Amino acid sequence: HIDHGKTTLTDRFLEIAGLLSGEHPEQFLDSMELERERGITIKAKVVSFEYKGYLFNLVDTPGHVDFSYEVSRVLTSCEGSILLVDATQGVEAQTVANCELAMKEDLEIIPVINKIDLPNAQIEKTKNEIMEILPVNEDEIYLVSAKTGYGVRELLDDLIEKIPPPSGEKDLPLRALIFDSVYDSYKGAIVYIKVFEGEIKRGMKIKFYSSGDVYEVNECGVQRIQMIKTDELVAGEIGYVVAGIKDISDVKIGDTIVEANDVESKPLPGFKEVKPFVFSSFFPVEETTIENLKNAIEKLHLNDASFEARPINSPTLGFGYRCGFLGTLHMEIIRERLEREFSLKIITTSPNVVYKVKLRNGDTISVDNPSNFPDPAKIEEIYEPITKITVVSPVEYISGIMELLKEKRGKFLKMHYINPTRVIIEFMLPLSEMIQGLYSQIKAISKGFASFDYEHAGYEKAELVKLDILINGKEVEGLSIIVPKEKAYRKGRELVERLSKIIPRQLFEVAIQAAIGKRVIARATVKALRKDVLAKCYGGDVTRKRKLLEKQKEGKKRMKRIGKVDVPQEAFWEVWK
Ligand code: GTP
User: Which of the listed residues 118, 147, 150, 155 should we mutate to test ligand 1's pocket, taking the one with most ligand atoms within 8 A of CB?
Assistant: First the structure.
């Protein structure tokens, strides 16, 4: 689970192995600037080190749910895993979910309780919770402080005994699994692999199983603190390969690498390709920056193939990009990186999920943008994505959480006590309801004590309609949403009310309407400004006048002009809330 100390523990291991010293920053594995600043791991990272004559390949995994696909793909290339639990927090939703993933892979799981140096550490309680989710005895659970280093060396020593060595044969034909890739402007794609069988060498011709594309290995090696070139990687090793691959999209995570002329080897059991689940549109605040946005998106895509983008031209918001993400945190991170690393100012529309719509003519289409939703007269059935939600919560907040999940169209599955005061609740919930603030709502109800995790669970039929928002008669892309039929009127009324408080008063009256098809179902008005505010600045008070103008300009920074009306970024977020 997020923040339980995985990256800190990894740092301690590296220190013991003599790889990390004063010159290297703490949390070296969280190398992305944003990762360090937010203190969260976004991408899984691999590092190899030697200790007591053994080679360890260790992968630090992200804790946030949006990136749990990283964890699942990493687990397929491991022999064992450390289940790290914060002694002050106990077992949380992602502890449960990731533990289940590791058990499915049949991995050796080593339970470790961290942060025992803290005065509020609840060691006994945490031990009992771990024993509820994992069949282990109390004396098999390690107690460490990744911060002070207490217990870390003993843990590392025991890993040698407890984690089995990899089993692959060096003399068989090459089969290596791709589990990650990053882009380097000099080397092209750097592909991270686990060699299951055979060996891979510099100069060798290799083939990607899924595409049949052939490349020559220019370089291979292992990842220490830096990349260290080696002549070969043999069965059991984890390392990287550079093979002049210019487009990172050509590297499919989960694909198998074989020798170029090998037509007999079967692929390793890979994993499903990840597809974006959440879509939103990015528009530059000033249209002149569309070229810059295009370049920035292309650059980011090189390093993150799970983020998709295609150019769009909206009648109201102009040129922009429709982008696909793994979840809403992923969306926020990409937006933040675009603004920070490329100095762009962007308007983001509210996130949407991908609907499958069966039409009366027999076709089924995928719709990732409400603006493209077909005319209701043409629709036979609508299907929406569903998730399985796991919530871990103190008992006293269960009824509040249950009520919230019911309001959000959740279907209760089961409940399980991990100790007399905490429960695991499982629910099915539409993804669209989940991305509309479920995380903060659950945190608010439980005063921060409950956690949740989700996994995608296919599609289900639903009664939905498209709700449009019109500003002075103009339908605005990005303000349209897909809502449950029975909630459409209420949503429409609430939304126009809230928008009327966000859209600033202009020199004329602004009508905000909610409509289903051609039928207007709610309306609110933003009254016109009575007088020019500057008129209040009497006579020659130039500085005051200038200050006021500047304040107005400041306020306009993140606005989009729709017709004659300036619509601020907040309006687009309001739809989502
Ligand atoms: P994500 O990458 O976001 O999933 O988090 P993580 O599990 O890698 O946690 P990280 O190592 O970033 O640690 C989270 C916070 O806990 C940091 O502020 C650490 O300094 C702190 N921390 C980690 N281990 C210990 C420990 O043993 N004791 C104390 N007191 N603090 C710790």
Answer: 147
